[in-house]
């Protein structure tokens, strides 16, 4: 097939329906011998009208196509050009269907002998990319795409993509290629023919490094060369690569961190937002570690921030300082690294489900190049994640090849970066004597979260559903195919009892009948034991046995904690939304590890509350130093406007009307994009629905959903000239808005509940610090440097007359706090 001529096709059309819409732009770019060898292009004049959004997207007008040709005039020419070629397109279903219908309308039956889709191939052979849209691929792979959504430019970029894919295929080892070829036979497109053609050329070498029969990239540690490193030289390199100016406060921060490490201190350090804490931490850590040969563990709040700190900050700084061989590492928990036995189990799946086929192929390709085995590199989502987990639960031997490799590498590193949720694992695995906790205002919340294992009704039901109850389901079917058919009814009956008992157990939990719930969960354990004993040592029993045993361990953990009264319950009117949280003692292990450290530093832009660090007593479990690097003028160009003419949130409909009215006023005067932050998704969705139904705005409305990536949402927001973004306050954590030095954020409510009774004790210990941290983080998105200005529009007047007022308004100038009505709001905006 590689000696074939590839016809790479792209069409622009008046819409997405091939039976009603028309082709307006057609291009074919030909690839032969893995080179572009020609092209064919025409504007098509069959359309009587072109929708405005199509013109906006393609720049093609009705006037443009009048000079084009009718498809009927070029039908024979196009057919001849495509005949005997392999038909290629990016999202082949769209282009091929349109061409088939267009040919059919002129009396030609067009069906290519061979067809491949570059979207499909890109997912397989470039498995670590975040997006497979042609524009994103062009940026990632340096394809030529000058005018996106014009047929020739898109076809040419797709042709270049095809060439890169073929080059990638030809670089793979023979063992991986054979596996890919066998799996690809179930695909509808002709990928298997492409792979077979490459294998037939006999240019694929044997794998140079195999683990458990899988081709893996072998990684050899670089030999570290001792270098003389100073804080001054590192700081100068940091300023140079970022084109920043020297700041005395930033140097002060670097030396504060460095001296804290040198003096083996326990220190809580607040440094104002926008000072450059990440780079200060890294510069101080590199200098100290190189000088003392001591390892430093750095933890930040989220995996995404961990990766940014490692790749965008640390690696970039070391490269600029010619310190590429300084040993550094990034370490996550075990579940983040691919389990090779799980991979082998996944390869055994005979299911011809499309998602499983693509998943198996992309993981095989990825394994040949990954240095880490970190599953985050391939971002398994939705069905892919579920299929991987299903395979994982069927194995008994939990291979930890990549995790162990990551730990070994981390142990020999000078600096290791992790995140708060895996800090305890890192401290247990490694011999670090020094710990720096960045974004430390989040650490107690993360530790408390990790201290509990969450059991949800829907999660347990899903696990059981993967076993199945009929011949179409994979695990049960695979077992029954190797055993006597009479076992089927028995197993289905037992699995049905399991399902019903889970329903009954969670119904009792929801009514807080703990004794009855414990009895039901104990009955589940007995049912599982009966099933396990009945299938033990029968034919092909291992997968079903291991999967049920994994399920049994979860139920056993539930029973243990219900009996010892170590649990929390979150109930709901619908028992299927019941959540059980049980203590797993990870907090106790962490605090034990913390006591053995020589020195540690907690640092954040928001760490003290009401001029106190008392909320950190539990963390340090003893005396600790405190320091604040502050900027009294930090928010002198930030206004806080609190409306006094809005309805209470209890009058929900009137409150929403008031909120949208203020948003509308803002846009009518300022004509710029806005962000509205909510404390819950229910109000967010209600406001979104009201805006959509009222059709008030003629610009895009972006809405955060529970599973949305903050980075993806931020990318959309930064790219748009005008838009309204509705998000939760969590959206602002660790993100930066681009190309704006004047920003406005609407905040619907302070992020804490109204305390009552005994709740006040919990409020001042936990809710208030969390709310203050979140509020200051939001402020930090407005004010990143001395030139920035902005305003918070807060629809919550609680902080104006409460004892905790100063905790929130610490840096605000009195004259910048405005409590007034719509008329004053209008005046404020007009004066800007």
UniProtKB/TrEMBL annotation:
Name under which the protein is recorded: ATP-dependent DNA helicase DinG
GO BP field: DNA replication proofreading
Family annotation (Pfam families): Helicase_C_2 (PF13307), RNase_T (PF00929)
InterPro entries: ATP-dep_Helicase_C, DnaQ, Helic_SF1/SF2_ATP-bd_DinG/Rad3, P-loop_NTPase, Ribonucl_H, RNaseH-like_sf, RNaseH_sf
Keywords: ATP-binding, Exonuclease, Helicase, Hydrolase, Nuclease, Nucleotide-binding
Annotated Helicase ATP-binding domain residues: 236-495
The keyword Nucleotide-binding is annotated on this UniProt entry: yes
An example molecular function term from Gene Ontology annotations: hydrolase activity, acting on acid anhydrides, in phosphorus-containing anhydrides
Family annotation (PANTHER family): DNA POLYMERASE III SUBUNIT EPSILON
Assigned EC number: 3.6.4.12
Gene Ontology terms: cellular component: cytosol
Keyword Secreted attributed: no
């Amino acid at each position: 097939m590689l000696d074939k001529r590839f016809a790479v096709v792209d069409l622009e059309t008046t819409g997405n329906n091939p039976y009603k819409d028309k082709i307006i732009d057609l291009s074919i770019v030909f690839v032969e011998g893995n080179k572009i060898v020609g092209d064919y292009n025409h504007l098509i004049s069959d359309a009587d009208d072109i929708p405005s959004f199509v013109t906006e997207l393609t720049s093609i007008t009705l006037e443009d196509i009048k000079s084009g040709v009718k498809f009927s005039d070029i039908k024979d020419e196009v057919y001849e050009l495509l005949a005997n070629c392999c038909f290629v397109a990016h999202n082949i279903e769209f282009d091929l269907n349109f061409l088939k219908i267009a040919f059919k309308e002129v009396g030609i039956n067009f069906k290519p002998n061979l067809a491949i889709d570059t979207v499909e191939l890109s997912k397989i052979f470039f498995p670590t990319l975040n997006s497979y849209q042609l524009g994103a691929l062009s940026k990632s792979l340096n394809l030529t795409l000058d005018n996106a959504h014009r047929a020739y430019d898109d076809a040419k970029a797709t042709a270049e993509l095809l060439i890169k894919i073929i080059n990638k295929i030809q670089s793979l080892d023979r063992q991986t290629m054979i596996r890919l070829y066998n799996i690809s036979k179930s695909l509808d497109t002709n990928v298997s023919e492409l792979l077979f053609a490459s294998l037939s050329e006999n240019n694929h070498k044997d794998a140079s490094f195999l683990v458990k029969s899988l081709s893996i990239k072998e990684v050899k540690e670089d030999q570290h060369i001792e270098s003389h490193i100073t804080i001054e030289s590192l700081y100068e390199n940091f300023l140079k690569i970022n084109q920043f100016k020297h700041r005395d406060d930033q140097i002060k921060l670097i030396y504060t961190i460095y001296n804290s490490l040198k003096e083996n201190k326990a220190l809580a350090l607040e440094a104002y937002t926008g000072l450059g804490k990440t780079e200060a931490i890294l510069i101080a850590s590199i200098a100290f570690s190189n000088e003392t040969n001591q390892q430093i563990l750095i933890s930040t709040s989220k995996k995404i921030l961990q990766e940014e700190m490692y790749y965008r900050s640390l690696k970039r700084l070391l490269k600029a300082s010619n310190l590429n061989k300084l040993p550094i590492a990034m370490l996550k928990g075990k579940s983040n690294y691919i389990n090779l036995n799980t991979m082998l189990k996944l390869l055994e799946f005979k299911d011809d489900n499309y998602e499983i086929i693509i998943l198996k192929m992309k993981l095989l390709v990825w394994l040949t190049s990954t240095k880490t085995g970190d599953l985050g590199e391939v971002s398994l989502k939705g069905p892919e994640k579920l299929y991987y987990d299903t395979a994982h639960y069927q194995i008994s031997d939990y291979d930890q090849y990549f995790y162990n490799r990551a730990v070994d590498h981390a142990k020999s590193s000078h600096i290791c970066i992790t995140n708060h949720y895996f800090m305890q694992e890192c401290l247990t695995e490694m011999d670090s004597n020094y710990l720096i906790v960045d974004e430390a205002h989040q650490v107690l919340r993360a530790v408390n979260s990790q201290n509990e294992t969450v059991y949800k009704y829907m999660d347990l039901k899903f696990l059981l559903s993967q076993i199945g109850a009929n011949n179409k389901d994979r695990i049960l079917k695979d077992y029954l195919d190797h055993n006597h058919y009479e076992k089927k009814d028995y197993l289905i009956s037992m699995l049905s009892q399991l399902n019903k008992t889970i329903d009954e157990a969670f119904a009792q939990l929801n009514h807080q009948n703990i004794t009855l719930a414990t009895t039901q969960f104990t009955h589940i354990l007995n049912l599982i034991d009966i099933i396990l004993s009945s299938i033990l040592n029968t034919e092909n029993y291992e997968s079903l046995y291991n999967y049920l045993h994994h399920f049994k361990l979860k139920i056993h953990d539930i029973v243990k904690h219900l009996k010892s009264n170590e649990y929390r319950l979150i109930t709901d009117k619908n028992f299927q939304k019941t959540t059980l949280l049980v203590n797993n003692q990870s907090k106790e292990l962490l605090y034990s590890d913390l006591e053995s450290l020589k020195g540690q530093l907690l640092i954040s832009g928001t760490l003290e509350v009401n001029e106190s660090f008392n909320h950190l007593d539990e963390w340090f479990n003893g005396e600790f130093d405190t320091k604040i690097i502050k900027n009294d003028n930090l928010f002198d160009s930030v206004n806080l406007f609190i409306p006094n003419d809005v309805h209470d949130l209890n009058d929900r409909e009137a409150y929403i009307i008031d909120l949208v009215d203020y948003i509308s006023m803002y846009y009518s005067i300022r004509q710029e994009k806005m962000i509205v932050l909510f404390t819950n998704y229910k109000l967010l969705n209600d406001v979104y629905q009201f805006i959509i139904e009222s059709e008030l705005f003629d610009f895009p409305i972006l809405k955060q959903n529970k599973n949305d990536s903050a980075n993806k949402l931020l990318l959309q927001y930064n790219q748009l000239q005008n838009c309204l973004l509705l998000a939760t306050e969590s959206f602002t954590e660790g993100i930066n808005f681009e190309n704006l030095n004047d920003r406005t954020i609407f905040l619907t409510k302070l992020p804490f509940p109204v305390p009552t009774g005994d709740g006040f004790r919990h409020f001042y210990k936990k809710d208030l610090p969390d709310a203050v941290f979140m509020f200051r983080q939001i402020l930090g998105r407005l004010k990143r440097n001395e030139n920035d200005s902005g305003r918070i529009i807060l629809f919550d007047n609680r902080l104006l007359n409460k004892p905790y007022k100063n905790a929130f308004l610490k840096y605000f100038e009195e004259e910048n706090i405005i409590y007034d009505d719509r008329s004053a709001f209008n005046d404020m905006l007009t004066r800007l």
